Structures
1.
Amino acid sequence: MSAADKVKPAASPASEDPSAIAGNISYHAQYSPHFSPLAFGPEQAFYATAESVRDHLLQRWNDTYLHFHKTDPKQTYYLSMEYLQGRALTNAIGNLGITGAYADAIKKFGYELEAVAGQERDAALGNGGLGRLASCFLDSMATLNLPSWGYGLRYRYGLFKQRIAKEGQEEIAEDWLDKFSPWEIVRHDIVYPIRFFGHVEIAPDGRRKWAGGEVLSALAYDVPIPGYKTKNAISLRLWDAKATAADFNLFQFNDGQYESAAQLHSRAQQICAVLYPGDATEEGKLLRLKQQYFLCSASLQDIIFRFKERKPDRVSGKWSEFPSKVAVQMNDTHPTLAIPELMRLLMDEEGLGWDEAWDVTNKTVAYTNHTVLPEALEKWSQAVMRKLLPRHMEIIEEIDKRFREMVISTRKDMEGKIESMRVLDNNPEKPVVRMANLCVVAGHTVNGVAELHSNILKEELFADYLSIWPKKFQNKTNGITPRRWLRFCNPELSEIVTKWLKTDQWTSNLDLLTGLRKFADDEKLHAEWAAAKLASKKRLAKHVLDVTGVTIDPNSLFDIQIKRIHEYKRQLMNILGAVYRYKKLKEMSAEERQKVTPRTVMVGGKAFATYTNAKRIVKLVNDVGAVVNNDADVNKYLKVVFIPNYNVSVAEVLIPGSELSQHISTAGMEASGTSNMKFSLNGCVIIGTLDGANVEIREEVGQDNFFLFGAKADQIAGLRKERENGLFKPDPRFEEAKQFIRSGAFGTYDYTPLLDSLEGNTGFGRGDYFLVGYDFPSYIEAQARVDEAYKDKKKWIKMSILNTAGSGKFSSDRTIDQYAKEIWGISACPVP
Ligand code: BZD
């Protein structure tokens, strides 16, 4: 039966009226037909519903654009190679305050809202924390009515889909655009030329000019981002690459040379084909650099266009006004090319001199660092850069030269440091451009993402620059949006919070959660809290059964670690802990076992396709699970489950159902972490090291409500030295766990190389560089404290409540408000 048979189609929805909404859904099912008009299954229902919601969004998006245009406020542009948006439907109707109306409207077609929303594919245009942070920031920017937009790339295939096969992780292309995305609006009116390769010439007016090479087009797709309870909707503008008809060689095509006729078209397609194309080859590196430049150039041309559009009369001679109207934030070093591109546009296109262009650029751009791992700090080959972007390379060389001269002439004391501070590393073996150094030298502000991390930036990574620019460095502790990460993903707990606080205003003022503290011992609240947790645990258990076939017990302690698989995040320590627990259970008598706290250990996350040890860790978790879960002696007390294809929507099921979550990185290595904030907000207790934002979470929720273990950041260097000097004595429990795996207890796969990475002083595996062996005993002891605490149900629920109550600081509304005031200098611009 078609939608029109059930509800009469109507072109426009009236926002609060379910009948009018149903009419509009029916209208979209008929007149935006992507499917046969005869059927109206859950998938059709999703697309028609989404298009109906899009009508609301577009209205707001247009009003907001016009309002910003008229008021001409200073605007922020967030440049990021990644956005992990996840699903949009529930979030959009939640932010617009029309969830109930839509649920009722959908019922008229015989469907439940949840089932329809479950049809949506995740937009996974990102990897992990950095991409999800960008998405949380957009939600907060819109909610705070800030004039700000995001810019990114419209990857055809986002982050791969993970499947677990016998050999371990398999990667499959994630086809989020397979049908289409109902949220994006293609903007055929917004197209910019993007040049690659070519050469630099002197134009007749004496300016330097980049010419030749090949020119592609960047085409804009807008994704409207609604704020919570506001009329404002901002834009996430994603660029796609295109070639034009003029680039199509009809002569060659008619001559049967089909491939060469459309060469540029196929090169254009490569640019936005995938997120993080492999970069082991030279071609792969070139493609990544092309992607980065594509984002920067298209975005800056668009920003300059808008600067002119808003006040056409200011165009000539008023470039000093630019930084009072535009702030550009670079999300890590991936969009660093924004710096030389802005310089080029200002000098070569707009005719500014170096000093004026530099002043404008410096006052416009700021840089957020997300890692101190040396291997993650981007360096581009000077040769590749010169070939692809010859004019930008000239500009970078000039920035480097002027920086060097400035230090030599003003800071004699720093002469010995200049080489490592320079933008260029002219090592004859491998001359490179250091992108982070370029960001520090050119940006007006550099920030870290948690207090500990920002201090490490100031004291270690960027310490030399600090004495030159003491005011340049700031901290902006990360945050998460409370809308997606509590209100919408955990309706049961949200209702309880609203009931006890007697207001739902916590949704946009998360500090109000502290009001729960005074009820932390209230037995009625305890009963409600425990019931909500149990409901979420049951939903989680169903997901686990659906995707793995493993039955887990909702009465066991749900212990979760979900994040990208990386050695510094130490999923290996978690699984060694589980192996140790399993071995001890095996050694116990049936009677002794009955005193044990039953646990379900869940691990989820994707390993980068070429990261061998990370893939071995995925395989090990799966192998351990296969043995433990089928061992009838102990599987009442322990299950180990690998959750496949971890993504935003999986997180939305897992986090509400969690009771303990692991954030156990080697201290000093996790810049912040943001899932720790999501867990804590959902009443989950953390076991963790003093790393990243864990430090601040522990301060906020109270040290009694956090299971701490492990070495501190300032001990790490010393411990590594001790290890190198052969002074490390491994704990017998650590040896026992490793030996158990080596014995073949979990199958025939050869884990020797993985386990060897934990051995030795230096050399292979860097002699346990991540100090799993050092922290293991205190980790096991902290886990024993968890077991004891969980036996006291009252105590545990109280800890859970106090975690939620202490999470107010970690709202991305707080983070974005600080960026707005302390870095960008922008203020709210609400649509009246
Ligand atoms: O950024 C992460 C950090 O590891 C987290 O500690 C932090 O909480 C978040 C947000 O600030 N970094 C990343 O996610 N980084 C990447 O994904 C990445 C991508 C490409 C190249 C290098 C790093």
2.
Amino acid sequence: MQLRDEIDQDKVLITAWSSSASADMAGALAGCGFDTVTVDMQHGAHDEASAFASAKAIFAAGKPAMLRIPVGRNDLASRALDMGFEAVIAPMINSVADADAFAKAMKYPPLGERSWGPTKALQMHRSHSPESYFAAANRETLALAMIETREAFAALDGILGNDGIDGIFVGPSDLSISWFNGAGVDPRNAELQDVLAEIGRRTREAGKFASIFAVDPSDVPGFARMGYRMAALNTDPGIFHAGAAVMLGKACA
Ligand code: 3PY
Ligand code: MG
């Protein structure tokens, strides 16, 4: 599948973040030059219908679709793969047990307990027969565990040690809340950057894929030096605001 191919090339990928419950908007983001689009069911407005329609729209625009599930909704993780999403991001994976439960839902036996039924995925990925999809799915679809608390940081080696976890996705906002014991939301805090660097380095050393949410696009080159190979750039309202500011600035210059 497309996302695994691109990850294997070790490029730094940029994902758009779709939070408006609109497949049209998700498809439009896919046409804007991003490498992938992530549909957000944790904090975004998507429900299952808009998320699954978005997967089709993103795929139709030639890009791989990723889904962030709400906390603990591992049932939606396997369903997302059946609907053709190529990666699932699971928030608040704070322990080895959380990672195990997520990986079980994401991977077919012997790695996990994913149930067979990739009807829509097969419709999208026509190069696959049912047999070849089954053989490829555990490697080609990605389980990304969110590291966004002190507990998750403490459990990092155990989480990375699960063969069904392909990589991590860092949530720097929640991590800052947890790291500084609720003092505030401060994802760009200087002290936190060392923690982000350590997570990136240890993930690479474990041979796994490191990705992260960038609250500011200018942070991405630094994240790449820390070992991260995917960054999410803001949400669709944020992208609108930034684009509108540029256009209005030119029009009113
Ligand atoms: C965080 O920064 O906590 C996130 O979950 C980013 O989406
Ligand atoms: Mg978070």
